[in-house]
Specification:
The protein is of the alpha/beta class. The chain contains nine helices and nine strands. The structure holds nicotinamide-adenine-dinucleotide.
């Protein structure tokens, strides 16, 4: 069976809640807790226990009745389910405000993300070093991927797109051309990609819209 046909489409909200549970579980482990109940997790996040149980079940771990989950086992299961227990080698294209913020953010490293090189089209940025990564011309992308494969045996699996919308599709095409299997797109445009490339868009404005809508509805209710 091909890997792609084995991938089930799991409920995105459940997957998105797992990192939040993971953070809580790591805090519990630091406090010395060995087990944690579903009810306790549910209370912490204002969820129903049945929802938490369902969310956690997608990792393949189930809690013991009246005891709960073994914290270590659950942390391991979530990290493995999310693929955060393995390194993901990535290239980033577009070293502007957002690209720099991602390169400077250490939090993703803990989730296995290793952005090994950054590319841009602006010659004034070439040779700059951002948190240990040199900014390279975009036309060196294929050669850089090839050198990484030859010298370090590393395959670039993910492309992070942080260029303006008008440049995003050609940049994504280049990333697909070097063989990435995942695109993390921050540009406000839907990209057209081969079906075997997994794709996720980041939409800060959608999150902001939800927040401002809640804020204004609260104003009306008060
Ligand atoms: P920016 O203008 O500061 O940076 C863009 C960078 O891309 C520049 O360095 C530019 O030289 C480079 N670039 C332009 N065309 C290129 C090309 N063809 N090849 C390689 N590099 C190229 O912009 P920013 O504020 O960092 O925003 C970057 C993108 O992220 C934009 O599309 C913006 O709309 C988007 N954005 C998304 C979110 C979100 O929630 N997803 C939030 C903020 C910004």
């Amino acid at each position: 069976m091909k890997a792609s046909s084995r991938v089930r489409n799991l409920p995105t909200p459940s997957v998105q809640r797992l990192p939040v549970y993971l953070r809580f579980l790591k805090e519990a482990r630091n406090r010395g807790d060995d087990v944690v109940s579903c009810t306790r997790i549910a209370e912490e996040f204002g969820q129903r226990s049945v929802q938490v149980r369902k969310d956690l079940a997608i990792t393949g771990v189930s809690g013991r009745p009246k005891v709960g989950y073994r914290v270590d086992e659950l942390i391991e299961a979530i990290e493995s389910f999310l693929g955060w227990d393995v390194k993901t080698t990535a290239f980033l294209v577009g070293v502007g405000n957002l690209g720099r913020a991602i390169l400077n953010y250490e939090g993703f490293v803990a989730h296995g993300l290793d952005v090994v090189a950054a590319f841009d089209a602006n010659p004034t940025l070439f040779g700059q070093e951002i948190n240990g990564r040199l900014v390279r011309p975009l036309d060196q992308i294929a050669a850089t991927a090839e050198r990484l494969r030859r010298e370090e045996g590393r395959i670039v699996e993910m492309g992070i797109v942080t260029v303006p919308a008008r440049a995003a599709q050609p940049v994504a095409d280049k990333l697909v051309g070097i063989g990435v299997r995942a695109i993390w797109n921050y540009a406000p445009i839907r990209l057209d990609l081969p079906s075997d490339v997994v794709y996720e868009e980041v939409k800060l404005s959608a999150s902001f819209a939800v927040l401002t809508n809640r804020l204004r509805r609260r104003d009306v209710a008060e």
